[in-house]
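Bench log. Compound arrived from synthesis this morning; before running ITC I wanted a structural hypothesis for how zinc ion sits in the protein. Inputs:
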Amino acid sequence: MDIIPTWAFYLAAAVAGLELGGLSTIFIQRWIDEEPICRPGGSKCPSCNARLAWRETIPLVSFLLLRGRCRHCGAPIGVQYVLAEVACMAWALASAHTFGLSPEWGVYLILGVMLIAGSLIDFETFLLPDRITLGGTAMALAASFFLRTGPTWQEALLGAAVGAGLFWVLQQLYRLWRGQEGLGTGDVKLMAMIGAMTGLSGLAPTILVGSVTGALGSVYYMLRPGRGGIRGRVPYGPFLSLGCLLYLLYGPQLLRWWQH
Ligand SMILES: [Zn+2]
């Protein structure tokens, strides 16, 4: 932290978070529309398909300048895109505060942005892309070999196996009990990624926070006046992801405080 002033680090973190958030909105849009992810070319308006100039795609700034509407057709810009950008910026700042300027920060910044993008896709489609869950598992396991803080590779591997195994068993039990799909296979793969990020010791607190916030979310969904699309189901991915991010930020300190 001596190399650059603190304020400059946080400013860079905020900008990096917004930019990654902007990239993730392109990923979200293309994944949901089943378009090639790696096609070159910028974003387009989902309602009139007009190509957007670079100045219309500056994260957050453009949304505010355009007052939330497409300049070409006037269609409202989906609030989930702004949400993705703001959430990624918040994650970039919070993780910068916890990890400081370090390789850990870089790795967890990317993994967190992947969880946020996956969560928004899960909310909209009840699906989680393998690119995020399996890609994230591979990345978190690889990172555990060289990062100095965070789980060792043995803990990360165990976390991934136990996380995915536990949710696979839950999925099978639910299927036997209700005769229908409750937990998706995407959630099982997501738990492999989350377990690899938190390590075995972080799994229980992560699932606890995920369950409590998920239960609160379910109540909100049930009480919310009839909006279609939810079909009485609640996606669990976003709540498990939230538990994972909160654990990464505060879990190890809390556990240390608890043990003393
Ligand atoms: Zn438009």
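What the model suggests: Residues 45, 47-48, 50, 70, 72-73, 75 surround zinc ion (CB under 6 Å). The longest helix spans residues 6-32.
ITC booked for Thursday regardless.
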